[in-house]
Model the fold of this input.
Amino acid sequence: MKPLQNLLSTPARRRLLIVALVLIALTLAYKLLYPLMFESYVGETNARLTYDSSKTLTDAEFEALATDLSREARYRKADSIVETDQAPFARQVKIEILMGTESVVRDAEPSHIKYFRDAGIRRYAGPDTCLTCHATIKIDHPDGSVSTVNTLDDIVNSVHFKFQSNSGGFSTYGYDGRRVNSGVHKIPVGKIDRACGIPGSFTWTGWAALVTAKPEHDGRIEPQLRSEGCGQCHIGGNYQPATEKMMPIGDVPDEAKEGIDCLICHSTQYDMNRRVVIRDAHGLRWDQDRSMRAALTVGPIRSENCLRCHQHNMGGDTYVHNAAAQQNGYEHQRILHRGAKRGNPFSPQDDAHAAAGLQCTDCHRPEGHKIPRGRKGVDLVANDLPGKEVSCESCHSRAPHNNSEHKALLNGHIARLACETCHIEELQPDNVVLRDWVHPTWNAEEGIWEPTDIYRSGAPGKGFTFLWFNGNGTFLANALGNNPNGSDVYNPLMQQIAHIDDPEVVAAVRAKAVELKQQYPDIDVERYVQIATNPLSQLTPDMLKKREAMVRDNLRAPMNEGESRIYPFKLFNAMMYEDMSNQGPFGAMILPFDYKTYYETGDTKAAVVKAVQDPIVQRMYQEPFKLYMMNEFMAYFGVTNGWKTTYPVVDGKLVNVEPHWMRQMGTLMVNHGIQRAGRECTDCHSPNGIMDFAKLGYTPERAAELEKVDIAEELASGDEGAQSGSND
Done:
């Protein structure tokens, strides 16, 4: 009692004790009560995770695996050294000799074999195993400084884990004219809630699903479970995305951190067949390879690691050189999506830099687990290092054409043209341009309903177009920039990306609409073609005037910022269901689909109803979320009167929800699929060239001059006075 009496002996001491008790109570509430309240509020599930591939090996099994891995590694090393142009038997003998040399053994044997052997590690248990040696890491910064950071915190706060950010550094502008998160009220934006042509990218509703597919083989239906969901391409292994990271306070629980998949990025022999959806007592989540084989083959990150996920975005699932898609599961095989999102693969077969042996991290140079995507960007994908340069000029400078006899001429084009404009000749032919999620098509071979691709093309002017770009973009992925002549004539949000007038494309859309009408008799073919090729026709006259005014008043300033050059941009639009209570001149709030309902039944309205009933989507339509982020989100969206909390489902039916095409094409950056040889002069400078110089904002006189064949001949002959941009 006496110590307590001494502690309470003076008013100052009593106040100090009260403050200490309050702080302890708040800390306990934050650590213990807040996580439980948050999980209840958003309907989350957290539990201890287990993985069948995480098995304890005996010493004998460990050594047998080590011997096997060592031999495989030494063989690959020796095989890469011995020349191929000799008799097979002689070559094999040389390989066997080299495999036993000290240098090959030293350089080729996976280093973690020794580490695990010495540490007595016989089971890989996820991040806990990695952190045994890597609790902290040193990071080299561009300014020459070195910092030491907590490894786990570095990962958890990287966009590869949380994939959204409420920080600044976005290169995108809202349609209200503000740079995203440049003001005081910052909100979490990024992959987790970005508007996109795949409504399932509401990761809360589309994280992990087991779909019962019914493929037909020889007249028989053989039901099988298939894996689908956003979680397949993210390193978090829990039952939902890291929703806690969207909040102003709070941290993801330890169970979620223990589910981080270190090996998908760091192992050379990660088995993608393990990357499937599994069901346990608590729900659905994504499995991962936690085998000792994968753990012992940790090595420097190479492109193969990155492309386990990123080739899905660039080359697509059906791209013939997508290695990960060829290992789509021992069971619950992943659904492979037809049609490429960008159609610009990074592979030795289709990209000059990949063919030259460059690795992804040679350009996207990490700082710890933070990986830059560059200063330029038109979408809302969060960027760990927004100030770090990732560009062609980083290696090639602004005068890259040093070996050509026309080098002065070609280097002169750099003032007006991005490298990609000449060196990406075309995208993959299955590049998706128009996708209809509202009218799905039955795929008998896969046994599922799929969104209908209305038009695909990798050709210039059809699958992608050319736009002025200064590094800025809009909230819905539209490139911003302007012709250096400063004219207001260039207006892609009212022209290029709001209309499709190519007769071949229009004819292809009409043919697909006629085909769809056989399955969906209510389709008005001519109206369908009109809104798919002229999405602005969906706007009322009043809304169209508001759009014109917002482009003029809010976006002209960011369009005129800095230096603009002509870049290629992949085009994309999609028909989706929208909440019409929250609409503006650039579209309305896109609603998600429940994957299982969508793929199994093709009942798209039922799929939306199911997804919208997810607890966290319901929270979006309540006051706390409205005040915290949705008002701000809609302001960026161009909706000036705030977020309407009218819930779009009543008695199990959709209310004030309509199917629409987005009011403009998305324009996605394409920076890979680079060809060594550039375009010919006449590809652009001819009457039927791939560039529409008038729509690019040139005066009629200058546009006519640039379209003449003889200017191409003058350029080719080395007449530097005729350089594109010399008198613009």
